[in-house]
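Re: weekly structure request thread

Next one in the queue (336 aa):
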Amino acid sequence: MIPDFALLLLALIIILASAELFTNGIEWLGHKLDLSEGVVGSVLAAVGTALPETLIPIVAVAFFGGKHGHEIGIGAIAGAPFMLTTLTLGLFGLAVWSFSRQNLRGKEIAISKAVICRDLRFFLFSYGIAIAFAYMPAIASYRYVVALLLLAIYGLYIYQTFAHEGETGHAPEILHFERLLNDKSKKMKVIISQVGVGLAGIIGGASLFVDHVAPIAHGLGIPPIVLSLIIAPVATELPEKVNSILWARIGKDTLAVGNITGALVFQSCFPVAFGIAFTSWQLSEGTTLSSMIALFFALIYWLLIRAGKLKSWHLMFGAGAYAITVSYLIAKHSGH
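Done, posted below.
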């Protein structure tokens, strides 16, 4: 397994470097287009960084098929919102706390309440519909209608996001390709090239990570449900985690949190619509538990943000819940 671990480390380095290129480039793209930080974080960054984990269930169902492929696909679909609401937001909270203790930023989380509450509201609605559908066999024949409904909800979300942009942010830090190419013009083609290279690196690095996580998990005797629900999202959601920490360090909290909550909306619409339309969409105990936890924490954070009381330590509770849930699922399936 040593070569797999070495390639795993290489994949992590690729993801980290690519995420830095992507976040810097996407900020400049939004700045050039006069877009608000809410739009940049919740739409541009969120969709871009959500692509790796979106591919996992599609590949699992399309190339493996059968019960095994469907289980992995559904597990990966449910694992993404679970990890985003618990571990990913928890790591952001930890980053805010840590950087504030080093006097690199303030300790308060400065986010746009309208942007993040809108994201969480859309997530609660769309993901709630998807989970409820799994326990309503009487309407199973309407699966394509429900899938189209979820896609329509995302269209409405995009419309509302652009219709209520808010204020644009300050000029980002110097464009990395500007240094590399010694080009001070910040032309759109240079910005788009950097975003494209960063995104390609993120997707390639995440794919490499997943390719070598699988044999390691198999060698350690970890069952497929744990792989799909826990390990695959850890790998594919590294971009959101890294992006949120990079933006937290420089105090761009709306970008950091919007990247995560925007990915939540995307994950609760596109991959879930695919799962409902093309899999059995029968949730196991593990996927049901993780889905309920995701909805619970999203609701709690929505209420705290509305009340203006969200603190970094609130978010860190989510990371604790993630650790407890993962430990339970590994213990439960380790004998299988």
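The chain is about 80% helix and 0% strand. The chain has one domain: 38-177+223-333.
Next request, please.
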